[in-house]
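Researcher: Here's a chain I'd like modeled. Treat it as a single chain, no partners, no ligands.
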Amino acid sequence: MSATAVTPVTVIDSGHMTGSAWAELWSYRELLAFLVWRDLKVRYRQTALGVAWAVLQPLATMVVFAVFFGRLAKLPSDGVPYPVFVFAALVPWTYLAAAVSTGAGALITNQNLLTKVYFPRLLVPAAAVTTPLCDAALTLLLALVLIAWYGIMPSLALLVVPLLLVFSLLIALGASAWLSALTVRYRDVRYTLPFAIQLWLFVTPVAYPSSLIPAQWRVVYGLNPMTTVVDGFRWALLGTPPPPVAVVAASVAVTAALLAGGLWYFRREERSFADLA
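Model: Modeled as a single isolated chain. Structure tokens:
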């Protein structure tokens, strides 16, 4: 009587993040770098203009805003030329819009990867929000060229720009942690996201200065953390008034809550990603 052959079965557990989310992300930093490099190559594969797309979108948006809001509506621009006033704000805003859009759908896009091997799932949206930083760097270089063209000399406040980009990344990561986990469970999220980002644009002082907001509402306006980022970029690049301390404090508090809540919800839902994605 021959023994019955037993076919080995490999079980891939969905896993869960143990310990600190930041510590585990750091331990998988090489995989994060690989995912970012992969996304960069995929983004510009078989494109005729390549990385030029990174600056064409904010440049075209600047032209439209300059014509309709600057020339026709004659919105104020804190004493600087309206085109560079808008473009300085579009540097962080274009990054945030791209990062949140890709980060929200990152788990769905990488669903095959989720079912094959365990790694911290937060790496997927983290890579998605890190990749657009390369485009933001190119847009920033173009902004510096435009500023020089208009004869504006940035001050030492320019050194704050990297911190503002990191702040933008944390905002994008917090939003993407929430949205990517929600998108796996509720596919309607990806259909409402473009509309939500468009609304976010209009409640952020990109086409207009924060000085139009009444003083008693400035702190409330700062609950939109991109207010601090946009005003900070204009201050660093153009020398416009910096965001008030109270507004900065409100933006930092909201970002901390967004990030902490996003990480908590992401980790709570992480076990179901492989089954639902």
